[in-house]
Write a structure and sequence with these properties.
There is one protein chain. With 561 residues, the protein is an alpha+beta fold. It folds into 4 domains: 8-135, Cytochrome c-like domain (Cytochrome Bc1 Complex, Chain D, domain 2, Orthogonal Bundle), CATH 1.10.760.10; 152-252, Orthogonal Bundle (Cytochrome Bc1 Complex, Chain D, domain 2), CATH 1.10.760; 264-489, Immunoglobulin-like (Sandwich), CATH 2.60.40.1190; 499-559. Helices cover 27% and strands 15% of the residues. It has helices at 8-24, 35-47, 49-52, 91-100, 116-128, 132-135, 152-164, 168-171, 210-219, 230-234, 240-252, 341-350, 495-527; strands at 264-269, 290-293, 295-296, 311-318, 322-330, 367-372, 394-400, 406-411, 417-419, 426-432, 435-443, 460-468, 480-481, 485-489. Strands 1, 2, 3, 4, 5, 6, 7, 8, 9, 10, 11, 12, 13 and 14 form a 14-stranded mixed β-sheet that branches. Helix 2 packs across helix 5, helix 7 crosses helix 11 and helix 9 (210-219) packs across helix 11. The longest helix is centred in the last third of the chain and has 33 residues, at 495-527. 35% of the residues are buried. The structure holds heme C (2 copies). Residues 68, 162, 165, 167, 169-171, 181, 185, 193, 195-196, 198, 204-206, 213, 216-217, 221, 224-227, 229, 246, 250 line the site of one heme C.
């Protein structure tokens, strides 16, 4: 069978409206013709139809590149609602989604892109795709109650309901979206549906706050397998307050704040011999984690628009001899897992683009790769971030879940990877409850020749990350990638580096206070104030004298009384 040839112009034309949106920013002013509907149609055709389709059926030219698919508005099913499960949303609900977008999906927020009048006209136009909006009674928001305070007791109560309502069937015991039902889940249109990863609330499509979570739990996400729980309250199985406890519990599974993305990953300095060689070593608990988001590789063909791994936490430690990285990322299965074969088949069936050789469902391992330049670059020069090219190769550590150890390699592009000799990489890995932890450790310096990075302390060394989920059919160019980040190996801090700033501070700050104190004393002396002899707090005899080590004795020090 010959694979269909990719049509090069197609992807571009499909994504053009989105590109334009980012490039052009605000659309030119639009003119209303026959009220809201006409304006709504004009704005919709321009900004929404490429994804949602000209007839609102969720089948625009770009739709095939997305999972979840853009909403089909012709069935009146909306996820983000304040109305009971199965009912139509209020206008305000629809406007809210248009304003905020749906995090973790391709649905953008339009609040700052389109004037309010256009967004309101869009609401009217979207409703026209589902005629019952006109005849059904006006939708009513349900009673929400109040979140109340979080406490350990409430979190424990929430956990009890998480177990008894069996949220774990879909979301997994630790909430990483890895429950036993997942391989079979599909939405009302028959597309594979992934339960939210409850440890990443910034990717919840309806919002990250405890109120947003409560709404999702109470009214459900219509059209998706995520059920509403209001019937449990009506049936007396739980109270509204207990559902709030569950919402608090779910919120507690994510970090308190959305992780900030920092360009430089700090490798903390450990005492000699204190660098761990296992993922479970308790010394990792003390090491700061850095979050690096990953996105689907859509630059090199075959592209991949349905990446399963959305980010990796990195911890790094060195002792001047060895460097160890602990990489932790959420992955719903320990691939290859036969239970996921059905999932693979469905994903491969619905995901564009069909480029290159046809991809068959198969037993693929999970993989991870860490990329460095072969030598520490001077300035901002770095190899091409997708594993280098013929002229500028990269140095790679690559690991796969079906083999012991990890291997070092030289890559000249994503398809040109040549293993280097084995031996110096210490590896440890562990999968549990939807999370991989991987340790990679190497001496800073090796005996190798050119092509093998020699680590240095105190400089920022480029580093990039790649992840593949085998049970999501990922391998080769179809996986998740990061851009270049940096790793910085903390230098041993000579004692004087600590002392010098302290001395400088005491000299300038302390002496400054002395000067003020003296000036005040002189004033008081002049006024005959009895407190004249008392120094200001903190500016007393404890202030150090300027020492020989300080090059700039305080200019006023010779005034010392
Ligand atoms: C780049 C593609 C894309 C564009 C452009 C886009 N959407 Fe969406 N939209 C989506 C996807 C994908 C979803 C479904 C996400 C999900 O199911 O989690 C969605 C969902 C929605 C929903 C459903 C909300 C719910 O509660 O279920 C509304 C309403 C919506 N979009 C309105 C719009 C409007 C209006 C525009 C244009 C101003 C627009 N979208 C442009 C991709 C897009
Ligand atoms: C039958 C499977 C299933 C069960 C059971 C289930 N969920 Fe979900 N849940 C899903 C799916 C699928 C999604 C993602 C839907 C989407 O975004 O398209 C989801 C999404 C969510 C979200 C994110 C909401 C958002 O705004 O994106 C939260 C929070 C959540 N579920 C919590 C729970 C809790 C708590 C329970 C138990 C009371 C539960 N779920 C039970 C399948 C399930």
């Amino acid at each position: 069978m010959v694979a269909p040839r990719p049509r090069p112009g197609r992807l571009l034309s499909a994504l053009l409206p989105i590109l334009l949106l980012t490039l052009v920013g605000l659309p030119s002013a639009l003119h209303a013709q026959d009220g809201d509907l006409a304006l709504g149609k004009e704005v919709y055709d321009r900004w929404c139809a490429a994804c949602h389709g000209w007839d609102g059926a969720g089948d625009g030219p770009a739709a095939g590149y997305m999972l979840p698919r853009p909403r089909d508005f012709t069935r009146g099913l909306y996820q983000i609602r304040t109305t009971p499960g199965g009912e139509i949303p209020t206008d305000q609900d629809i406007l809210h989604v248009i304003n905020k977008g749906m995090p973790g999906t391709t649905m953008p927020g339009w609040e700052s892109q389109l004037p309010r009048r256009q967004r309101e006209a869009l609401v009217a136009y979207l409703k026209s795709f589902y005629p019952p909006f006109e005849t059904l009674p006006a939708p009513q928001s349900v009673e929400f109650g109040r979140p109340g305070r979080v406490s350990d007791e409430r979190l424990a109560e929430g956990r009890l309901f998480y177990d008894s309502i069996e949220c774990w069937q879909c979301h997994g015991g630790a909430g990483r979206g890895d429950g036993p039902s997942v391989p079979e889940l599909e939405d009302d249109w028959g597309f594979p549906a992934r339960p939210a990863d409850l440890t990443k609330n910034w990717m919840f499509s309806g919002g990250a706050t405890v109120e947003d979570i409560y709404r999702a739990l109470l009214t459900g996400l219509d059209g998706s397998p995520m059920p509403a729980n209001s019937d449990l309250i009506d049936a007396g199985f739980m109270t509204q307050d207990q559902l709030w406890s569950l919402a608090h519990y779910v919120r507690s599974l994510s970090p308190e704040r959305t992780p900030r993305i920092r360009e430089v990953i700090r490798a903390e300095r450990a005492d000699p011999g204190e660098v761990p060689s296992s993922v479970g070593d308790e010394r990792w608990e003390e090491v700061e984690p850095f979050y690096v988001p990953l996105v689907g590789q859509i630059i090199i063909s075959p592209r991949w628009f349905d990446p399963a791994v959305s980010g990796v936490w990195i911890q790094a430690m060195h002792d001047g001899e060895d460097l160890a990285l602990r990489l932790s990322w959420n992955d719903r299965s320990r691939s290859p897992d036969p239970a996921w074969m059905a999932w693979q088949e469905r994903v491969l069936e619905v995901m564009e683009p069909r480029e290159g050789d046809p991809v068959e469902p198969g037993e693929r391992p999970d993989r991870f790769a860490v990329q460095f330049p072969p030598t520490i670059p001077t300035g901002m020069d770095r190899p091409y971030f997708l594993m280098g090219d013929a002229r500028n190769p990269v140095y790679l550590w690559q690991w796969r879940s079906d083999q012991a150890g990890a291997e070092r390699a030289t890559a000249r592009g994503m398809r040109e990877i040549a293993p280097l000799d084995e031996g110096v990489l210490v590896t440890d890995s562990h999968w549990e409850a939807g999370e991989w932890q991987l340790l990679l450790r190497r001496p800073l310096l090796t005996e190798d020749g050119a092509g093998v990075l020699q680590f240095e302390e105190g400089v920022s060394i480029p580093v990039a990350f790649f992840a593949w989920d085998g049970d999501n059919s990922e391998e080769g160019t179809r996986g998740s990638i990061s851009s270049w980040f940096f790793i910085h190996l903390e230098q041993e801090v000579p004692a004087t580096t600590f002392v010098a700033p302290l001395v400088a501070f005491l000299l300038t700050g302390g002496m400054g206070l002395l000067v003020v104190a003296r000036a005040q004393r002189r004033e008081r002396e002049a006024e005959g104030d009895p407190r004249a002899d008392r120094p200001l707090p903190g500016a007393g005899s404890g202030s150090p004298e300027p020492t020989g080590t300080h090059p700039h004795p305080h200019p006023h020090s010779e005034d010392e009384v």
